[in-house]
Amino acid sequence: MSLKSTIDELREFDTALIANTLGYLDPTPASDFYMSGQIQSVTRALGPTVGVAMTIEMDSSTPGKSANVDPYWRQLEEIEAMDVPVIWVVKTVGSRHDHECVLGDGMAKALYSVGCIGVVTDGGVRDVNGLLTIPFAAYCRGTTIHHGNMHFRNPGGAIEVGGITIRSGDIVHANMEGVIKIAANAAKELPARAVDMRAAEHAVHLLWRRTDLSIAQKREHAGKVFAKYNFGAATGGHHELK
Questions:
Q1: Are the C-beta atoms of 89 and 116 separated by less than 8 Å?
Q2: Residue 32 and which of 94, 133, 165, 217 are 20 to 30 A apart at CA?
Q3: What is the pTM of this model?
Q4: What stretches of 71-229 adopt beta strand conformation (E)?
Q5: Domain range 3-187, its CATH number among 3.30.479.10, 3.20.20.70, 3.50.30.40, 2.40.340.10
Q6: What's the DSSP call for residue 181?
Q7: Positive or negative CA dihedral for 71, 76, 77, 83?
Q8: Are 199 and 229 in contact (CB under 8 A)?
Q9: Number of helices and strands (H, E) in the chain?
Q10: What is the pLDDT of residues 25-73, one digit of tens each?
């Protein structure tokens, strides 16, 4: 299966379900693959958003900072040459962090035209209504009305956004509840196992609703359900509780 096909299949699942499934497939600690609650969707009607990360750092807030937009234009060319959906991941590095504005609907249209479907950033965005019409998903710290000179640096480098490290080439999965990254070694197996997780969670949630079972019985039956679907001990915690 191609990477593009895998990404298309992953769009069928909520991000929380994918996160739960990852805990059984990959030894990466949960703390290393899910972003903090500071990174929120401002285009909540869109998603899940799934694609390959392309990273860069940006300063749009430092007074007197000179502009440097050439790295942005080069990344547009790189995205255009790719055959998979891309998510632009932007670390803001300006001196006035609360004033950072990464993009509006103009830049989003240019990005979307070459195959970028959304942005994940620890800065702000603007023109949300315009983003929805493209459609271009945005996961960020909120909205910011304006920006100073845009200075881009470190295209393609490892960056920290939302408390985790993102590298170009990572698979990013996001929806209205948050953002995660997916380990490359787990991606191919993940869609099929997410189907199993969905079935297992449905069965366990029915157990949680029941009033004719003791807590001990519910716990025992839940364990049997997860064993039925070949989910052993999770690396990230007791996901059956969710």
A1: no
A2: 94
A3: 0.94
A4: 86-92, 101-103, 116-121, 124-125, 137-140, 142-143, 151-153, 159-161, 164-166, 171-175, 178-182
A5: 3.50.30.40
A6: E
A7: positive
A8: yes
A9: 8, 13
A10: 999 999 999 999 999 999 999 999 999 999 999 999 999 999 999 999 9
Structure tokens at 200: 């297992």
* Residue carrying structure tokens 């807590």: 215
- Sheet bearing 101-103, strands edge to edge: 101-103, 124-125, 142-143
The one-letter code for the residue type at 94 is: G
Q: Are 146 and 63 in contact (CB under 8 A)?
A: no
- Taking each helix axis as running N to C, give the angle between helix 190-209 and helix 15-25, from 0 to 180 degrees, rounded to the nearest 10: 110
Q: What integer is the mean pLDDT of 220-225?
A: 96
Could you identify the residue written with the tokens 């055959």? Answer: 83
Q: What are the distances in angstroms from CA 43 to CA 94, 105, 132, 210?
A: 24, 12, 6, 36
Q: Which is nearest to 7 in space by CA: 55, 56, 48?
A: 48
CA dist 183 and 162 (Å) reads: 17
Is the pLDDT at 160 greater than 70? The verdict is yes
Pairing relation of β-strands 86-92 and 116-121?
Answer: parallel
The domain limits of the chain are: 3-187, 190-236
Q: Which residue has the higher pLDDT, 151 or 235?
A: 151
Q: Which residues share a beta bridge with 57?
A: 91, 153
